[in-house]
Write a structure and sequence with these properties.
Radius of gyration: 24 Å
Number of domains: 2
Number of strands: 38
Helix content: under 10%
Oligomer: single chain
Shape: elongated
Length: about 450
Amino acid sequence: MRASGSPSLSSSLSSPLSPPPAGATSRALAAVLGAGLALAACGSDDGASEASVGATDGVNGSSDSPSGVPGAPGVSGAGLVEDVPVGGACASQVAADTFTAAVCSCEDTRVAGYLRTTSFRSRPLPPGAPDAAVGSVGVDRDYVTAGYADVSGSFIVAGGRDVAFGGYLKAGEDVRVNPALDVAGLVEVGRDAFLKSDARVFGKVDIGRDLYLEPGSDISGIAVVDVGGQRRSETVQVDPPCACAPEQIIDVAALVDAARDDNDDAAAGLEPGDLNTVVGIGAEATLPGGRYYLQQLGGVGSLTLHVTADTALFVEDDLIATGLFRIELAPGAELDVFVRDNLVVTGAAVFGDPERPSATRIYVGGTGDVAIAGASAFVGNLYAPQANILVGGVGQVRGSLFGKNIIAAGFLDLGYDASVHDAGEECPPLEPGDIPRIR
């Protein structure tokens, strides 16, 4: 993605968090930051003041450029951002390698009601590119439910605990399960079924292509079994589907550490502590493309971040979305957020465009629980392999979830944007060592 032009800088404002004078029609929440970051909140009809971070100027990936990462594209001129570098790769390449399924859990996925995944594309598939997975579900350990699952892609469970569906199991692609299955209703598989253990079905089994059964295993119960291809007896191997081994987990802390000294903060007039604690209503900030390092992001009240071009935020501590926290993406802009510690969502948080969930990616390095999807849908692709992701009520997600455990108290409905799997057109292939991993 490319964005051109440099946003204008706002004028100087009063000091941060100072109380407003009596009768004032607006109040400032932050002073000008160096070359021009300003953060303001307004409570009058005059409209809220807005903060702006100036675009970087003419760095061209040179050795003194904060974005000049060897082997990765960076800032290509004043206000022209190719694809933000992360480690030795493009941000979009990291996303394509990470968010390959609608749901991935390193341990368990527990859904009290139903799980449904659908898929769509927010942008056309690049010419000649292979189509991506379409809303698959991968569980490295156990899947626990009292309801049913309707998955547009593949459904893979590698654990040993039997899975009992109170309704039905549907998968648009493959079903590959290690534990025994109990289904009171319909089993419908669009392609192949791989069963390591017995399946007890009271209803109908419809398999589009081949059925692979571990020797000694079978489908029993009161069921009509219709196999479109062949029924095969052979060893079935169900490997953990998610990249959760220590050598596979992204080391978010290492990426944040690297960004502490390798960022565009100075060129934009941004100080790392400027968005630590935002207090008030109507606070806004505008970020053009680049790499920005922050100590913390969030506060009490409301904060809107306007992202005008491809941007990466590296947060040293927590991202705290209390009150109303909103990220608004300009057309074509993408955002990657790397949070060293925890993502804390306690209010109405909007992390991007529901029509383009592939454009927002959030990587969390902490171990604290992440609670999402309250009254409104969660937008974005969330990577938190060492944290539990908790979904309350009727959980609607536009994007994908990758967590240690994924726990839904009610229903979990995910719309997977397969465009997240399309790498940037100018990005080189992701190579081993480009992204630090936990060893």
